């Protein structure tokens, strides 16, 4: 990949046109990797560009310092530079002690940062300029870009159409968020931390033109740090009001936001709120510490403290912390010292990040990271990625959160999330759902898991039974494992997996075996491996389930890292039953769960929180067993406790009876019928004794 040049010359050409700044996304939407920054970025009303010449790959922080020396520079110019986003997940690369994140329902890249050697800029007076960091090898290409972009400014492209569905809470929903806040308050009371920013995830369908969506949102909300970014990975539409970092020369500043009230609230009431001021002051102290790591001793000061400001449809308390960078400190070191932003983590920061990964049910993607620009002329300017719609695969999602401190009310924090999300949704022509029934969770008295979640870097696997050389549901297991690899690493390995499974089955030969196939990420591409383990026959047993709470569950992938469930199984001496914070039943440690309810078998929906089990899918496709309907629908722990029994299904055991400690075991004849159906569907010979 081409790297930025060592030296360039600034070229500025005025353009005729009267494009509104909020329409900047439309000017570059038809190109590759379009970006638009709208608001007050670098003293401009809008900066937009596309068709970059280099990409940050392994270390985006280091890339921020790879900018050319520029001749003929003038004050106020931007010229170009690195523009893009840094995802929240990069924080774990800076703090390896933070455990792995919760499941990722929609995975975006950890960063999308590219070097652009030209921009369109709308200055503070509303005049448009073509600015370029000109080099001889790029002269012809830049002349072409000038002609194309000049024509677009003179005759702007029309906006397309789009449709954003109603934004609804995902996973454990609003009740789950309230429960997460309650758990966070408990940790604060125990002295684990002072404050954590706990977030709620909202999701909707999306179809159409994301640049048109951005133009509309930016027009309606007029944020100070609005943005639109696009690429093969999807798009971001941000109405961020919060400055994360600005560096001009050696001077650096941050403006953390903490403390929020609805737009109709008097500003004086927010300024007088002890709770909101305490949230803000704690984060100001944190940001002073972060800047102090890279600034001259004694130069870090607080200029404004808890000033009420109107931001993206709400009132917020905004403070300003300033400092002067030490000699030799570049943009990369500055961002590393402060990332992820303190206002969206908490205090102490590392402990808050651990708490976030333990209590939130879904991983953050671009949300609560940073968006912005590093220019050799304008310096560094990054916004906190909040009030942001993330788009990919026909879906849109938005995080909304707030600082949890000891005075926090769980349902008050839910409402604060919705207060922040509603203006963005309304600006996009949508709304935020807040169903009343979400306020009555059935949360069992179950242990909250505080162990590290599975580490995705250890890979994914599938395990299936094999009797006399015949693997059960071979194609379904291969398809699922290949889908894991495709979703996680963008690779196609179906043929390699088929060859591996065929060899393992042949080597297994006579008798019962477990076949295990693994896919592990490697620098040169995923490695595949497997093993066949003889499985001695065992008597049929009734498994006892013990509920444990794991926010967001294990997700839709079957991880090689089984330490969490193995340790829980050993600790409990029973089979862990995973439930979410709202009391939703998810799955057992190694099996899908079916509740026996009268004339039906009911299993929780595969909504991204559970592994879509192969045997589970076979039963749902069959539609009925012994005249009993098989269906999926939300299943609470309270409902499971009232069931006539529980059946577990898995790729090795196929089907087995289970019960809660004080519950009823599923009827043995029904379990046998389920098992017979699965054996018939698998095409296997019927073994004399089941694997327990």
TrEMBL record:
**BP-aspect Gene Ontology terms:** L-tryptophan biosynthetic process
A single Gene Ontology MF term assigned here is:
4-amino-4-deoxychorismate synthase activity
InterPro entries for this protein: ADC_synthase, Aminotrans_IV, Aminotransferase-like, Anth_synth_I-like, Anth_synth_I_N, BCAT-like_C, BCAT-like_N, Chorismate_C
Q: Where is the Anthranilate synthase component I N-terminal domain?
A: 55-123
Pfam families in UniProt:
Aminotran_4, Anth_synt_I_N, Chorismate_bind
Domain Chorismate-utilising enzyme C-terminal: from-to ranges = 177-420
Q: What is this protein called?
A: Unannotated protein
Organism the protein comes from: freshwater metagenome
What is the taxonomic lineage of the source species?
A: unclassified sequences, metagenomes, ecological metagenomes
């Amino acid at each position: 990949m081409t790297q930025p040049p060592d030296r360039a010359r600034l070229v500025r050409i005025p353009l005729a046109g009267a494009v509104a700044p909020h329409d900047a996304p439309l000017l570059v939407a038809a190109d590759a990797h379009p970006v638009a920054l709208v608001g007050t970025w670098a003293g401009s009303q809008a900066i937009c560009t596309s068709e970059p010449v280099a990409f940050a790959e392994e270390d985006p922080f280091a890339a921020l310092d790879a900018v050319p020396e520029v001749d003929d520079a003038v004050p106020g110019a931007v010229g170009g530079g690195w523009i893009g986003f840094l995802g929240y997940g990069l924080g774990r690369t800076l703090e390896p002690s933070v455990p792995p994140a919760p499941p990722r329902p929609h995975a975006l890249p950890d960063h999308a940062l590219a070097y652009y050697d030209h921009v369109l800029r709308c200055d503070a007076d509303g005049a448009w300029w073509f600015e370029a960091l000109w080099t001889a090898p790029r002269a012809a290409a830049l002349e072409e870009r000038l002609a194309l972009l000049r024509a677009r400014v003179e005759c702007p492209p029309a906006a397309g159409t789009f449709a954003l569905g109603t934004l609804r809470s995902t996973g454990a929903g609003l009740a789950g968020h309230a429960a997460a806040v309650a758990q966070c308050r408990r940790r604060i009371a125990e002295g684990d931390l002072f404050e954590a920013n706990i977030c709620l995830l909202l999701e909707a369908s999306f179809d159409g033109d994301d640049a048109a969506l951005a133009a509309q949102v930016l027009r309606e909300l007029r944020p100070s740090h609005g943005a639109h970014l696009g690429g093969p990975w999807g798009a971001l539409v941000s109405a961020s009001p919060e400055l994360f970092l600005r560096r001009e020369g050696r001077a650096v500043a941050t403006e953390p936001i903490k403390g929020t009230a609805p737009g109709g609230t008097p500003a004086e009431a927010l300024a007088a709120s002890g709770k909101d001021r305490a949230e803000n002051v704690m984060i100001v102290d944190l940001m002073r510490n972060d800047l102090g790591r890279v600034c001259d001793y004694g130069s870090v000061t607080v200029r404004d403290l808890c000033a009420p400001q109107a931001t993206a449809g709400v009132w917020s308390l905004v403070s300003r912390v300033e400092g002067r960078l030490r000699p030799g400190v570049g943009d990369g070191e500055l961002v590393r010292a402060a990332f992820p932003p303190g206002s969206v983590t908490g205090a102490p920061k590392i402990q808050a990040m651990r708490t976030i990964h333990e209590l939130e049910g879904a991983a953050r993607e671009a949300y609560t990271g940073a968006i912005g620009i590093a220019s050799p002329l304008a310096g560094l300017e990054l916004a906190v990625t909040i009030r942001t719609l993330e788009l990919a695969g026909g879906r849109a999602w938005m995080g909304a959160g707030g600082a949890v401190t000891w005075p926090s009310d769980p349902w008050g924090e839910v409402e604060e999330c919705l207060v922040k999300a509603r203006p963005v949704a309304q600006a996009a022509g949508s709304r935020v759902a807040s169903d009343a029934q979400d306020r009555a969770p059935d949360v069992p008295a179950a242990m909250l898991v505080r162990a590290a979640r599975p580490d995705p870097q250890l890979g994914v696997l599938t395990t299936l039974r094999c009797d006399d050389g015949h693997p059960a549901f071979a194609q379904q297991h291969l398809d699922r494992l290949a889908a894991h690899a495709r979703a996680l690493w963008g690779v196609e390995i179906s043929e390699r997996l088929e060859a591996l499974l065929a060899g393992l089955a042949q080597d297994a030969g006579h008798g019962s075996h477990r076949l295990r196939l693994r896919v592990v990420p490697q620098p040169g591409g995923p490695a595949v491996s497997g093993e066949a383990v003889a499985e001695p026959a065992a008597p049929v047993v009734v498994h006892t389930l013990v509920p444990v709470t794991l926010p967001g569950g294990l997700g839709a992938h079957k991880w090689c890292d089984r330490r969490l469930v193995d340790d829980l199984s050993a600790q409990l001496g029973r089979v862990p039953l995973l439930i979410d914070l709202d009391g939703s039943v998810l799955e057992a440690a190694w099996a899908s769960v079916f509740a026996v309810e009268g004339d039906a078998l009911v299993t929780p929906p595969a909504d991204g929180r559970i592994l879509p089990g192969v045997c589970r899918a076979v039963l749902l496709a069959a539609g009925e067993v012994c005249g009993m309907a098989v269906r999926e629908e939300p299943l609470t722990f309270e409902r499971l406790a009232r069931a006539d029994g529980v059946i577990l299904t898995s790729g090795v055991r196929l089907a087995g009876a289970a019960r809660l400690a004080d519950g009823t075991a599923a009827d043995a004849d029904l379990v046998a019928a389920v098992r017979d159906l699965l054996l018939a569907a698998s095409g296997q010979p019927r073994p004399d004794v089941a694997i327990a």
